[in-house]
């Protein structure tokens, strides 16, 4: 029996590190000062490449030539001890799928979905060419990385082998408050198997809210809000629209529902 699976791009609501509260997720990208009336002034951009970062581990994709390494921002607790976020995975614990559907607990067949605290870039490495490249030119705030699963997944009796990556990300200080964080617009991008040729899967003036998976068609539906007033942040009163992505061919996209 086919199901519509709801995949929420959920935020990390509470985080703790021993007795210390972790800093707010995100990082500063512009110099912030105040005028004589105490109003904030957003000034010169800070070079985000100067962020202190560390790699976490190596993610195994379905293709042995291609390996990924999540890169995290280095944070400091109140005792000035450094720490970085760790990888967490969105999983699906459904156990009553029909015959011919083995997703190995992945949210969507053929994709693993990883997230983590202050996840700021992704390194791609090709084992044959020995070339390493970053998916993003500068530090961003990654919500979720979807990459080809190492497991042998099937959908409706067919083996599923994805050959691309998708990333849900805050990549711009869209609301101009001097920070890249969850108050900015969240974009959704496609990358080829080499981590190159970035392409937006929804229009730039939208912010991703959540998604759903349609196993009958192997489609992903993206629910997003339009930044109607162009203030660079998602607000409740703004229009909510739905876009679709054909996961068999992510070049094939369209609009499922458009607000009047």
Write the layout of secondary structure elements.
Layout: E1 4-7, E2 16-17, E3 20-21, E4 27-28, E5 30-34, E6 40-45, E7 53-55, E8 59-60, E9 66-73, E10 75-76, E11 82-83, E12 88-90, E13 111-115, E14 119-126, E15 131-134, E16 141-148, E17 153-155, E18 158-160, E19 164-170, E20 179-180, E21 187-192, E22 199-200, E23 206-214, E24 219-226, E25 240-246, E26 253-257
Antiparallel strand pairs: 1-23, 2-3, 4-20, 5-6, 7-9, 8-9, 9-14, 10-11, 12-13, 13-16, 14-15, 16-19, 17-18, 19-21, 21-22, 23-24, 24-25, 25-26
Could you characterize what this model shows?
InterPro entries: EF-hand-dom_pair (IPR011992), EF_Hand_1_Ca_BS (IPR018247). This is EF-hand domain-containing protein. The chain has 260 residues and is an all-beta fold. It has a domain at 27-32 and 40-204. It has strands spanning 4-7, 16-17, 20-21, 27-28, 30-34, 40-45, 53-55, 59-60, 66-73, 75-76, 82-83, 88-90, 111-115, 119-126, 131-134, 141-148, 153-155, 158-160, 164-170, 179-180, 187-192, 199-200, 206-214, 219-226, 240-246, 253-257. The strands form eight sheets. A six-stranded antiparallel β-sheet has the order 12-13-16-19-21-22, with no helix packed on it. Strands 1-23-24-25-26 form a five-stranded antiparallel β-sheet, with no helix packed on it. The chain is globular and about 50 Å long. The two termini are 34 Å apart. Residues 1-23 have low confidence and may be disordered.
């Amino acid at each position: 029996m086919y199901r519509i699976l709801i995949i929420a791009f959920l935020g990390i609501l509470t985080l703790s590190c021993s007795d210390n509260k972790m800093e707010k997720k995100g990082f500063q990208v512009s110099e912030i000062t105040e005028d004589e009336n105490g109003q904030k002034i957003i000034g010169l951009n800070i070079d985000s490449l100067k962020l202190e970062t560390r790699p976490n581990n190596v993610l195994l994709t379905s293709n042995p030539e291609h390996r990924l390494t999540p890169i995290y921002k280095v944070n400091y607790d109140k005792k000035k001890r450094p720490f970085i976020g760790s990888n967490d995975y969105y999983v699906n614990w459904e156990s009553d799928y029909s015959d011919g559907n083995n997703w190995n607990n992945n949210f969507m067949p053929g994709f693993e979905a990883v997230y983590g605290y202050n996840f700021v870039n992704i390194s791609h490495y090709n084992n044959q060419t020995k070339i390493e490249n970053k998916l993003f030119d500068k530090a961003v705030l990654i919500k979720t990385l979807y990459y080809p699963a190492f497991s042998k997944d099937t959908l409706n009796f067919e083996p599923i082998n994805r050959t691309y990556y998708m990333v849900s990300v805050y990549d711009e200080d869209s609301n101009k408050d001097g920070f890249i964080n969850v108050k900015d617009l969240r974009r959704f991008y496609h990358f080829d198997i080499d981590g190159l040729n970035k392409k937006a899967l929804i229009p730039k003036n939208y912010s991703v809210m959540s998604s759903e998976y349609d196993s009958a068609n192997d489609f992903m539906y993206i629910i997003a809000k339009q930044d109607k007033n162009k203030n660079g942040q998602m607000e409740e009163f703004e229009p909510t629209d739905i876009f679709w992505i054909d996961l068999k061919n992510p070049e094939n996209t369209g609009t499922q529902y458009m607000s009047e």
